[in-house]
TrEMBL record, chain A:
Organism name: Haloferax elongans ATCC BAA-1513
Name of the featured protein: ABC-type dipeptide/oligopeptide/nickel transport system, permease protein I
Lineage summary: Archaea, Methanobacteriati, Methanobacteriota, Stenosarchaea group, Halobacteria
Residues annotated as signal peptide: none
GO terms for cellular component: plasma membrane
Superkingdom, natural source: Archaea
Automatic annotation (TrEMBL), chain B:
Protein's UniProt name: Binding-protein-dependent transporters inner membrane component
Any single GO BP term: transmembrane transport
Record organism: Haloferax elongans ATCC BAA-1513
TM region(s), chain numbering: 18-40, 121-145, 157-177, 210-228, 271-294, 314-336
A GO cellular component entry from the record: plasma membrane
Family (UniProt): Belongs to the binding-protein-dependent transport system permease family.
Major localisation: membrane
Length: 332, 354
């Protein structure tokens, strides 16, 4: 199968999964006890007013009409209106998305920058103190709940030593770019420092699990590669050890590592939800939690759809990238 | 089901690996703590004593500046009809009565850690069992029948995988509410634990029920069955081509019989390895749900971490200690998982973590 046919097939599968996701999210409302109209109405409301609100929300329509209304708006980017604020859900989700993406990307950068060197050092100095250190770190790292790590970082670095703020996001990358474009360079630099200062603890909190995971993968991948015949052959023909390690072995190690990073993006978003709760970070996670507490159905459903669809799209992208960088892949 | 050779590999790997030994010791320790909680817990986990709130753990003391009534020669100083107050540094010392300190309501943290183990272990074991039951059933069916059945089942697994597990779990628990079933604690209702306690001189009574967090167990299973389905399907796909399976079918065995009698027993090793890792992942998931206040549990390590947050600048131990309990438990389970994987080498990928 050619690469393009593989991509078409993969996209069709993705489309099916997206349809499934939307249907599951639609169904979520029906497993919940209680009526969405109750969110808007006091319990002792006049039955006529109640019937009116239910009609207005379209809740008395047959199921297939409700389903069609729900699903047909989505390709146009319509996710309905919030029950609480009566504003479009899509706009609210979009407004919260940058904060979550910033956090996820910052955490990924933290993870890659620390984990790959650590994994390489660990593999090339096997059974030495550095290797044991890295192994223990990655074991504890994958076993630590990140919300607890966040609380610990706050207690030690924010409360005791006052090095970082405990929470909040006073400025985002979008704000910094805006300042930069409008020519206030000094303020843009200030904004950037503030942003870095505020995102450090959340990014470390969210990134630690991935740092640990990628360290483990890089270590075992490197060990595997360094034992291959081509490495021995390169050494035998007199290639410098640094070239053997970093040009050949590391490059082959990174291919599966990149795939795992892509596949773990779902875990990353899940982790972001709870990290946001710890640091009062105003992203999608905070929106999801608030919408559950307020029983604001459309907002919860819209956020879930955006998260899941984003995840499916990223996975297709990762598959394509993987197929592109690794010509040996079998497309099936 | 588990062959002599498998047991030999397990023993050999255990002799070789210090980490595997540590893992087993930790897991057994936590299990015993959870099972025998009413025997060993110094207090009831819910017993409040506001006079003893926020006592630090043994080895620590706290200094706090407080407004206190001014005393002279043992009596209150009154000037102009008002009680005079003064600022004084109050030192709080640890007491041996609360070795891990107390929380904001004066509840004993050691007792809460011991009882919290029950919540984690219950959700971990029942959640994993239910996830395995669903996942193995789906996976074996998909792998055994292949074709259209396989397509439908595995595509629905893909749909589940498109949701980040924590997000889906929050949404499900959030919309479902938090059903919990109190079941009688056998050690307390039979009088065994109370007799043991009074012999030791403990005075407080223990709760006579164990709370089974029903919704949380169902939700973590619904979120995690997919991993079992994938592994079981892979095994079924290869095992169905084995001669003994073909032979069984040629002899007229039904599909159900063939799967249960021939495919499942030969797929059990990787499923067990996955289950070990999944218990760890599900314990982490439960703690996250409790931390966010969605699980409804009132004795849970994750919930206690959240309770301690309001004292994060004055009483660090309230959040710190239950978190350490989670880390130790999950490290132990992961070490056992590594041991099983290294010894049995089923070549599966694990997933977990919050």
């Amino acid at each position: 199968m050619s690469l393009s046919r593989f991509l078409v097939k993969r996209s069709l599968q993705g489309l099916f999964v997206i349809w499934g996701v939307i249907t599951v999210v639609f169904g979520l409302r029906f497993i919940s006890p209680g009526d969405p109209a109750n969110v808007l109405l006091p319990p002792d409301v006049d039955p006529e007013v109640r019937a009116e609100v239910i009609a207005e929300l379209g809740l008395n329509e047959p199921l297939y009409v409700q389903y069609w209304d729900f699903i047909s708006g989505i390709p146009l980017g319509e996710l309905g209106n919030s029950l609480v604020t009566r504003t479009p859900v899509a706009a609210r989700v979009l407004a919260k998305l940058p904060a979550t993406l910033e956090l996820a990307i910052a955490a990924t950068i933290v993870a890659i920058v620390i984990a790959i060197p650590l994994g390489v050092i660990s593999a090339t100095r096997r059974h030495q103190p550095a290797d044991y250190g890295a192994t223990v770190f990655s074991l504890v790292g994958i076993s630590t709940p990140n919300f607890w790590l966040g609380v610990m970082l706050i207690i030690v670095l924010a409360v005791q030593f006052d090095l970082f703020p405990t929470s909040q996001r006073p400025i985002g990358v979008d704000g910094i770019v805006l300042l930069f474009v409008s020519g206030s360079l000094g303020e843009a630099v200030n904004g950037l420092t503030t942003w870095l200062w505020h995102i450090t603890l959340p990014a470390v909190t969210l990134g630690t699990y991935f740092t640990a995971l990628i360290t483990r993968l890089t270590r075992s991948g490197m060990l595997d590669q360094l034992g291959q015949t081509y490495v021995r052959a390169s050494r035998a023909k007199g290639l410098p050890e640094t070239l053997v390690r970093y040009k050949h072995a590391l490059r082959n190690t990174l291919i599966p590592v990149i795939t795992v990073i892509g596949l773990q993006l779902g875990t990353l978003i899940g982790g972001a939800v709870i990290t946001e709760a710890v640091f009062a970070w105003p992203g999608l996670g905070t929106l999801i939690i608030n919408s559950i507490n307020a029983r604001d159905w459309p907002v919860l459903q819209g956020s879930l759809i955006v998260v899941a669809v984003g995840f499916v799209l990223v996975n297709i992208l990762v598959d394509a990238l993987y197929a592109y960088v690794n010509p040996q892949v079998a497309y099936d | 089901m588990i062959s002599e050779r498998t047991l030999r590999n397990l023993r050999r790997e255990l002799r070789r690996s210090l980490l595997a030994k540590i893992g087993i010791v930790v897991v057994v320790f936590i299990l015993l703590m959870a099972v025998f909680a009413p025997f060993i817990s110094p207090y009831s986990p819910g017993k409040q004593n506001l006079d003893e709130a926020r006592l630090p753990p043994v080895g620590f003391s706290t200094a706090e500046t407080r407004e206190v009534t001014k005393m002279e020669n043992g009596s209150v100083v009154i000037e102009g009809g008002e009680v005079v107050t003064e600022e004084r540094t109050v030192y709080t010392n640890a007491t041996a009565a609360h070795p891990l300190g107390t929380d904001g309501n004066g509840r004993d943290i050691l007792s809460r850690v011991i009882y919290g183990a029950r919540t984690s272990i219950l959700v971990g074991i029942f959640g994993t069992s239910l996830a395995a039951l669903i996942g193995v059933l789906v996976g074996l069916t998909a792998g055994y029948y292949r074709g259209r059945v396989d397509d439908v089942l595995m595509r629905s697994a893909d749909i589940m995988l498109a949701f980040p597990s924590l997000v889906l779990a929050i949404a499900l628990v959030g919309v479902w509410g938090q059903a919990q079933a109190p079941i009688p604690d056998p050690f307390v209702v039979t009088g065994l634990a109370p007799a043991f306690r009074s012999a030791l001189g403990f005075t407080t009574g223990m709760p006579d029920t164990v709370v089974l967090p029903g919704t949380v167990i169902v939700v973590v299973a619904l979120v995690n069955w997919v991993w079992f389905a994938r592994v079981a399907r892979g095994e079924a796909l290869s095992i169905r081509e084995e001669e003994y399976v073909k032979a069984a079918r040629a002899l007229g065995a039904s599909d159900g019989w063939t799967v249960l009698r021939h495919v499942l027993p030969n797929a059990i090793t990787p499923i067990l390895v996955l289950a070990t890792i999944q218990v760890a992942a599900i314990i982490l998931l439960e703690s996250a749900l409790s931390f966010l206040g969605f699980s409804g549990a009132d004795v849970s390590w994750g919930f206690d971490i959240a309770l301690g947050r309001q004292y994060q600048s004055t009483a660090w131990w309230i959040s710190t200690i239950p978190g350490l309990a989670i880390v130790i438990t999950v490290v132990g389970l992961n070490l056992v998982g590594d041991w099983l994987r290294d010894a049995l080498d089923p070549g599966i990928e694990g997933e977990g973590g919050v």
